[in-house]
Amino acid sequence: MSVIGMFMPTKEGGWSGTIRTLTIDAKLRFVPNDNRDSERAPAFKLYVGRSEVGAAWRERGGKKEYLSVRLDDPVLAAPVHAALFPAEDGQEAHLVWRRRETT
Q: Is the model's pTM score more than 0.70?
């Protein structure tokens, strides 16, 4: 797994930080989705500037809670799937990505 972003909590209950890869260098905000009309709706909408670029859903892996993240952009060949893992103290979070295995 590769860490592609570092995030800090916001006053609004979301996260703000930067994604950095070989081709991406963007400030990204996780904004709480206050208009969830179903249980399957994302918990957060993701923005770069004013453009919505993805969504995140709350998940649990064992005892650890994390966000399952999906980012998309017209320049990407396919959406990027990643996970945001908050630190134990909740003062920062790491966005990690792993290439999906193909069969």
A: yes
